[in-house]
Amino acid sequence: MSYDIRIQKELINKLADSRKIVVFTGSGVSAESGIPTFRGDDGLWKKFSAHELANFDSFMKNPDLVWEWYQYRRRIINDSKPNAGHRALVELEKYLDVTIVTQNVDNLHQRAGSSRVYELHGNITRNKCTACGKRYDGEIELADNKPPHCECGALVRPDVVWFGENLPEGVYELAEEQCESCDVMLVVGTSGVVYPAALLPSAALSSGAMVVDINIDDSDHQHGRRLFIKGRSGEVLPAIFDEIKRLKEY
């Protein structure tokens, strides 16, 4: 492992004595399952930025294009599988009270088996009406590749948070409560620059929790009271689980 053994020991000892931990995940975790961030992809979508496609105005102006992009994203996600990092978090539930707070919309934490997941930015496997809000879960068949309409007549859209939109009602507040009452917060695979989600580690810190960043890149690490472990989630999280298992079963 490439991370500081001193931090590892400090973290393991703290986790072993913890009542509750929060794991805050971002796109770096999904990338290890082969899901790109969709910034600068190959092919057609390289011509567009996420800002051009993931906003309500763009959808209403060109719903065909936005739906085509989301269908493309869904195909990639459907073909992807939870990785070792996802699975390690599920295993940790055998020994610790684990809450997942994620910025990812790919449903991989749930597919892996995590029992408590707060989705800050929605879920790409769901859809909803732009007018009445009715939910349409699962895959939707597109007639002639045209965006679907709700029974009320309005367009149906992916149930994800687009640029300029508020987070789902109540989800951030519930996630914040979890952060304020945890003993340890692991911030995994996220640069922590998207607000208001980026405020959650500060809520944990202010309440006295240990906050540890786990990432392959330390350029975005929030120095000061937060610790840093350099590495992939699929390597670091299984190593943490193995140590917790060893201590708990000793």
Structure characteristics:
alpha/beta, 250 residues, three-stranded antiparallel beta sheet, 2 domains, SIR2/SIRT2 'Small Domain', Rossmann fold, 18% strand, 10 helices
Structure description:
It is a single chain. The chain has helices spanning 5-16, 27-31, 50-53, 56-61, 63-78, 84-92, 108-112, 171-180, 200-206, 233-248; strands spanning 21-25, 98-102, 117-119, 122-129, 135-137, 156-160, 184-188, 210-215, 227-230. Helix 6 runs parallel beside helix 10. It folds into two domains: 1-34 and 82-121 and 167-250, 3-Layer(aba) Sandwich (Rossmann fold), CATH 3.40.50.1220; 36-79 and 123-160, SIR2/SIRT2 'Small Domain'. The model has no long low-confidence stretch (mean pLDDT 88). The chain is built from ten helices and nine strands. It has a six-stranded parallel sheet, with helices on both faces. Strands 5-4-6 form a three-stranded antiparallel sheet, covered by helices on one side. By secondary structure, the chain is α/β, with parallel strands linked by helices.
CATH topology label of the largest domain: Rossmann fold
Largest sheet: 6 strands, parallel
Task: Quickly name the level 1 CATH class of the largest domain.
Answer: Alpha Beta
Helix percent band: 25-40%
CATH architectural designation of the largest domain: 3-Layer(aba) Sandwich
Overall structural domain count: 2
* Helix and strand run: HEHHHHHEHEEEEHEHEEH
Q: What would you report as the Rg, rounded to the nearest angstrom?
A: 19 Å
Query: Structural class given helices, strands, pairing?
Result: alpha/beta
